[in-house]
Amino acid sequence: MADEARRSGAETRERLLSAARAAFARRGYHATTTAEIAAAAGCSEPTLFKHFGSKQALLVAAIHATGAQLVATLQAPLPPGRDPFEAFAERARSLLPNPSLGELSRLRTVALALSDEVDLGDAGSGLRAFLDSAAEAVAAGQASGSVRPDLVPADVAQIVFAISLLFGFHSALDGDEAAAAELAPVVDSLLIMLRAPEGKHP
Q: Sign of the C-alpha dihedral, residues 140, 142, 146, 148?
């Protein structure tokens, strides 16, 4: 019985996070109500506050959970023999059609606009994890010889993040499919610039 209650609670929490992510990304923070989010998640408003305590905490949790989900995709264990940077690049491309990527970019923009009035708490941890993951992939690619050795991994990670923000703007203006189509060549161009010249591999 206790296990069922925990599962039910976890499922409700996930529904609330999903509904909050979509609502905040679509309508912004102030125009979105907790009653609307609760209804979309199929639960009551008191249940929402039982799980998250406040609307602010729900926004922060939605940003954190969405970022952690996307980073987990990038950090999945490598298949044997795969170059670490090539695998990271392939996974990054695979995220472009994922609606969560555009929603996360918009959520981060919403959070930045609210930084003077909302305690963002742990909202930045997902960003740090993303930057660390990208920098580690670049460094691993340099170690394997597939990435140019003259680059600073942390700087490349910042560029990758800038592209993800750009995706968020394109997604908000043109929709996820159009944003993915527009940004895919940008990602490919970046990968070409990062690759070590032929014959320079150890």
A: positive
Angle between helices 84-95 and 176-194 (to 10 degrees): 160
Kindly report the length of the chain: 202
pLDDT, one tens digit per residue, over 74-128 is 778 877 778 877 887 888 778 878 888 888 888 888 887 877 766 666 666 677 8
Is the pTM here over 0.70, yes or no? yes
User: According to the CATH classification, is domain 55-194 in 1.10.287?
Assistant: no
CA distance 66 to 126: 8
Contact assessment for residue 52 and residue 61, using Cβ atoms and an 8 Å cutoff: yes
φ/ψ bin of 94: left (φ > 0), alpha (ψ from -120 to 50), beta (otherwise): alpha
Query: What is the domain partition of the chain in residue ranges?
Result: 55-194
